[in-house]
Write a structure and sequence with these properties.
Layout: E1 11-14, H1 19-32, E2 37-42, H2 45-58, E3 65-68, H3 69-81, E4 85-92, E5 95-103, H4 115-118, E6 124-130, E7 151-153, E8 166-172, H5 173-178
Parallel strand pairs: 1-2, 2-3
Antiparallel strand pairs: 4-5, 5-8, 6-7, 6-8
Helix pairs in contact: 1-2
Length: about 180
C-alpha cells in the first residue's frame, strides 16, 4: 500500500468501508510517524478491539482510537427502543456513556428511592432532576420549552424520586436498560 505520511502530519483518518484497508492505512501511518493520531472507522467490533490493542501496544506514543459506526450510534437506537430520550452520548474508552431523560414511573429502580439510593457506582447516577410539572414539560429535555428547562443539577442526596418525576441519568447503554428491570 502506497501510504506516505510526512512528519508534519498530526492526524490520519482511515475512514473507508473496508476494515482491513483502514487498519493498513493506520499501521503504515503510525510506522512513518509514531506520535501520529490515527482515527479508524471499523465495522467489526471484535476486529476494532484487536486493532485498538495492537496499535496501542505497537505505537505507545500514538493517540490511536478505533470505533465501530454502530457502536457510536447505538445509544440513540437503544434508548429509543427502551422509550428513553438520549440527550447526549460520548465515547469513554470502549464504552459509550449516555445522558438520558428517564420517567421515574417507568423505572422500579428509581421510583420511591432517594437520589443517593438510586446511584449505582460504575452503573449509573442521577446528575439532575426535572422540576417542571409533567403537564408543562417539554417532551424533549434537550429542546426545552421557552424559559429553559427547570433542572435541579446535583440534587440533594436525600431527595426522593417520585412517580410523575423525570430525571437525567448518566449510564452506559447496557446499564440504562437495567433501569427498567426490577432486580437490584
Amino acid at each position: 500500500m502506497g501510504i506516505r505520511v510526512t512528519h508534519r502530519a498530526q492526524a490520519l483518518p482511515a475512514l473507508s468501508s473496508d476494515d482491513s484497508t483502514d487498519f493498513e492505512v493506520a499501521s503504515a501511518g503510525c510506522a512513518s510517524v509514531p506520535e501520529l493520531r490515527a482515527v479508524l472507522r471499523l465495522f467489526d467490533d471484535d476486529f476494532a478491539e484487536n486493532v485498538y490493542l495492537t496499535l496501542r501496544d505497537s505505537y505507545p506514543e500514538a493517540r490511536t482510537r478505533s470505533r465501530r459506526v454502530a457502536y457510536l450510534s447505538a445509544p440513540a437506537f437503544a434508548s429509543a427502543m427502551m422509550d428513553r430520550q438520549v440527550i447526549g452520548a460520548l465515547a469513554a474508552g470502549r464504552e459509550v456513556l449516555v445522558i438520558a431523560a428517564v420517567d421515574v414511573a417507568r423505572s422500579p429502580r428509581l421510583r420511591g428511592t432517594t437520589v443517593a439510593d438510586a446511584h449505582r457506582p460504575g452503573l449509573w447516577r442521577v446528575p439532575a432532576v426535572d422540576l417542571a410539572p409533567p403537564e408543562l414539560r417539554s417532551p424533549n429535555l434537550a429542546q426545552p420549552r421557552c424559559g429553559g428547562p427547570e433542572l435541579l443539577r446535583s440534587p440533594p442526596a436525600d431527595r426522593v424520586l417520585v412517580e410523575g418525576g423525570r430525571v437525567m441519568v448518566a449510564a452506559t447503554v447496557r446499564d440504562l436498560g437495567l433501569l427498567g428491570s426490577r432486580a437490584s
